[in-house]
């Protein structure tokens, strides 16, 4: 029983460092066939899970030492950082699931120092880049300066070794793999030991800038960095989860965690049909503008309009969503928002025609290459996923099902679709009605004298 609880992230025992681990192995049922590639790093290995080395991982392993030398120039400070990592060993050990082979104190301290400095080096670099962008924006020189600003990776040492175009994009994606994480408090400790005059939220700003290109929604808003407390972040994947989701509290117009209660599976609404069938039932799809997150879906029962924020699908979206879902499926402290959203979208998209409808409405922006079928994207990532009882869309799904089952809405939709789908058809219908009315009037005046002759 303890193994079963551990497998799904529910620890049967507590430690003095917290109620549960925060870094888990991906459950085996989620690693099905070629899906295992979505959870393995390609360019850089972070943390305690070691795999088969590649050309990139070997190059980056040596590059980590360069990052340590750039951040820590004094030998005494290096020794102090290493001793601090050794002191954190019990807390680090408690952060990892029991399925990880944590290893001895010396190796763990060395790994945390190398990986921590590597990640810290990248976050601080992107934080400086973000600061320059903000300064240029505030001075109204963004358009003129954007062309002259140098991207952080353009001046990096490793650019000369393996090439920027491939390696750094792969590194950024690898930093968001569930099994490729180190505790965030390790970064905070190293950040504090460097006697930096910057605040801890600098790491959050750097993360936002680093992962900006991987965000699944079009960022039309400025993420409130102040709402995220660095000490409450577990690791980089958790931080990204907070940035693209409803935030640490989950409070927004339609999502209040205090109202999110457990729903029994028998009480959950029936699966809603695909987009084409919903359109035939009178439901209209509309792209929701200025949404705080791509998860914030709205439905107006009076007008029958289902508003869904736009979502961009790239080749790496498969691995990104799978690891976010795996994080929710293993760590009990989440609200299962990504899983709920993915299951909901999987219901909407059953055929390429459903995908086409959402694409034409501007809801799904397909940027995948021809080898991947975007219409089966949500079907792939939802395979073997546990449907959460904590469902923030349960009310919306119930209203959609109720609207679809209404005969009045179906008749109205059929009338609009068959007779008012375009101006020419509408004009023909109106002309036919007028002609019919005139015929009735003419017939009336023709027949009327026979029944009521003049005196």
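^ structure tokens above, recovered residues below v
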């Amino acid at each position: 029983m303890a193994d079963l609880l551990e497998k799904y992230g529910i620890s049967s025992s507590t430690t003095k460092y917290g109620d549960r681990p925060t870094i888990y192995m991906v459950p085996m049922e989620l690693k099905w066939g070629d899906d295992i590639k979505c959870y393995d790093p390609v360019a850089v290995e972070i943390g305690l899970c070691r795999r088969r080395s590649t050309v990139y991982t070997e190059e980056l392993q040596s590059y980590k030492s360069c990052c340590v030398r750039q951040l820590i120039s004094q030998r005494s400070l290096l020794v102090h950082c290493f001793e601090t990592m050794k002191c954190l060993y019990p807390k680090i050990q408690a952060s990892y699931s029991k399925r990880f082979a944590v290893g001895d104190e010396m190796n763990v301290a060395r790994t945390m120092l190398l990986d921590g400095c590597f990640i810290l080096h990248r976050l601080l670099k992107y934080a400086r880049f973000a600061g320059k962008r903000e300064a240029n924006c505030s001075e109204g020189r963004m358009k003129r300066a954007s062309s002259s600003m140098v991207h952080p990776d353009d001046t990096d040492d490793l650019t000369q070794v393996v090439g920027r175009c491939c390696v750094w994009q792969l590194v950024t994606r690898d930093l968001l793999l569930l099994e490729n994480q180190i505790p965030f408090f390790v970064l905070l400790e190293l950040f504090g030991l460097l006697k930096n005059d910057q605040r801890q939220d600098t790491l959050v700003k750097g993360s936002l800038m680093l992962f900006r290109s991987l965000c699944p929604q079009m960022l039309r808003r400025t993420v409130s960095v102040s709402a995220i407390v660095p000490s409450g972040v577990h690791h980089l994947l958790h931080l990204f989860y907070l940035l693209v989701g409803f935030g640490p509290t989950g409070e927004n117009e339609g999502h209040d965690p205090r109202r999110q209660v457990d729903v029994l599976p028998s009480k959950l609404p029936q699966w809603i049909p695909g987009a084409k069938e919903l359109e035939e039932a009178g439901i209209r799809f509309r792209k929701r503008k200025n949404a705080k997150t791509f998860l914030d879906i709205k439905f107006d029962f009076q007008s029958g309009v289902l508003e869904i924020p736009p979502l961009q699908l790239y080749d790496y979206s498969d691995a990104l969503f799978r690891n976010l879902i795996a994080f929710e499926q293993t760590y009990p402290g989440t609200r299962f928002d990504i899983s709920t959203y993915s299951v909901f979208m999987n219901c909407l998209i059953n055929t390429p025609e459903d995908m086409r409808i959402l694409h034409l409405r501007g809801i799904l922006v397909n940027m995948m290459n021809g080898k991947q079928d975007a219409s089966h994207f949500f079907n792939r990532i939802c395979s073997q996923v546990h449907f959460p009882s904590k469902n923030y869309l349960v009310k919306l799904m119930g209203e959609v099902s109720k609207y679809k089952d209404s005969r009045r809405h179906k008749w109205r939709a059929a009338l609009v679709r068959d007779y008012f789908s375009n101006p020419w058809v509408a004009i023909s219908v109106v002309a036919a009605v007028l002609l019919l009315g005139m015929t009735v009037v003419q017939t009336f005046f023709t027949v009327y004298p026979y029944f009521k002759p003049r005196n």
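Confidence is low (pLDDT under 50) at residues 4-17, 144-148.
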